[in-house]
Write a structure and sequence with these properties.
Number of strands: 16
Mean pLDDT: 92
Distance between the termini: 31 Å
Structural class: alpha/beta
Oligomer: single chain
Largest sheet: 8 strands, mixed
Helix content: 25-40%
Shape: globular
Radius of gyration: 24 Å
Low-confidence stretches: 135-140
Length: 433
């Protein structure tokens, strides 16, 4: 079954022959290799590119093991491409498998890496370079740092609901239920049954993601990293910060004195999870004050199926699951997303009038355009609807406002011009914002 990843394919096509290294980034097993080695390769062949002019190396396979040496790779590719009239394409998959080697002219100097090899090959006018890769020895943030100003990034995510539904078909409401439970990791679609899907997702955490981070960052307290994962997965869409996480872990594990986990350690571990694309931090934005808060912020899992697997497919609260899915969808569509904070009058515990902070789930920005979005599982009565609408009224502006709901199928606008739209309708309409 071929899953079309049109958005990413169009990005790759738009970057062709721009003199930059094209870097395909994203969480492991989200389809980076498939995008490059199958979809983009097929596109080139359809455009008349000769297959022999696509130089492909899979560094995780023994057949290409000698090319893990960046000097061997560079020398071999140069021999094929240099002084030729034809145009060539270089695909390097799992480039993090490349070794660091001694400089043969100065063994005391800095080691030669794949960064050096690719920078060397960039000078060939008839070679267009594409790479994928991320694991314990090299996550994509490292590549982007090394190639700053000389690279294009194509950030790949797990399947959006639209991509998932285009592959599975059938009743879209049944499809959404499965998507909200198992998420959009591409191989989920080919698993034969629910048990196999669960085991696959659980194995990704234990055998891929955790191992990568532990090895790469030389984690000493793997138990703490696991506890952070459990807490973040249990509290998606909730406000938190490293201090809160540290306090919770120290309390649950009854740690005291020199055995307590420091806030800085928690912060570092949380940053590692973000760097590995497992979680995204969504900052809070003061809509009228036009400034960010330091803490607390929200954290969303890159794939809702991974989140569900981590907590044993318990805590299936659709309110939080919906919010995570909507956040991921907005990121996939390329928007900048914040949590909005507005202030209005309210009463304190003694009945006195005071300023109360109210939350807008998502402030969505693209260029100069802004949209406010609330995620609401259901609005069964006017009182609940008023609670969701109130933050919109406090923004003091006329930017579009949307409530995404699970309890309706037909979209409609209320008297205040706020669009109410069903979650599936929202996910399948690329032009809603």
């Amino acid at each position: 079954m071929e899953i079309k990843r049109e958005k990413y394919l169009k990005q790759l096509i738009s970057f062709m022959w721009d003199g930059q290294v094209k870097i395909i980034t994203g969480i492991r097993r989200c389809g980076k290799s498939y995008l490059l080695g199958t979809l983009f390769r097929n596109y080139l062949l359809e455009q008349g590119v000769d297959n022999k002019n696509i130089l492909s190396f899979e560094l995780d396979l023994t057949k290409d093991i000698k090319y893990r040496n960046p000097l061997v790779l560079s020398e071999y590719v140069r021999g094929l491409v240099e002084n030729k009239q034809d145009k060539f394409y270089l695909f390097v998959d799992e480039i993090q498998m490349s070794d660091e080697v001694y400089n043969p002219y100065n063994k005391e100097g800095k080691k030669i890496t794949f960064y050096d090899a690719l920078n060397d090959l960039r000078s060939l006018h008839n070679l267009d370079i594409y790479v994928t890769g991320s694991n314990s020895r090299m996550l994509s943030s490292d590549i982007l740092t090394e190639f700053r100003g000389r690279s294009d990034e194509v950030r790949v995510h797990p399947l959006s609901f639209a991509e998932y539904y285009s592959a599975v078909g059938g009743d879209k409401y049944d499809a959404f239920d499965n998507y909200a439970f198992f998420g959009g990791m591409p191989l989920i679609i080919s698993r034969p049954d629910d048990s196999a899907r669960m085991k696959y997702l659980q194995s990704l955490f234990s055998e891929v993601y955790l191992r990568d981070i532990v090895e790469r960052k030389k984690i000493k307290r793997e138990d703490i990293l696991s506890s952070i994962l459990d807490l973040l997965c249990s509290s998606i869409g909730s406000l938190t910060n490293p201090s809160n996480v540290a306090n919770t872990i120290n309390s649950k594990q009854k740690l005291s004195g020199e055995n307590t986990v420091a806030n800085n350690t928690i912060k570092s571990y949380m940053n590692y999870l973000d760097d590995a694309f497992l979680f995204s931090e969504c900052k809070r934005w003061d809509v009228k004050g036009k400034s960010y808060f330091d803490y607390p912020n929200k954290y969303y899992c890159e794939d809702i199926g991974l989140r569900n697997a981590r907590i044993g497919f318990r805590q299936q609260e659709m309110t939080h699951i919906m919010e995570n899915i909507i956040y991921n969808e907005l990121i996939i569509r390329g928007f900048a997303v914040d949590v909005g904070v507005v202030y209005g009058s309210g009463k304190d515990s003694k009945g006195r009038t005071t300023q109360v902070a109210r939350e807008i789930d998502f402030v969505v920005n693209s260029g100069g355009k802004r949209t406010y979005i609330q995620s609401a599982y259901a609005l069964p009565n006017d009182e609940k609807a008023e609670i969701e609408n109130k933050p919109f009224q406090l923004t003091g502006d006329s930017f579009p406002k949307i409530i995404v709901r699970h309890d309706i199928r037909k979209r409609w606008y209320d008297d205040n011009g706020i669009l109410n739209i069903g979650i599936i309708d929202f996910l399948l309409d690329d032009n809603i914002i």
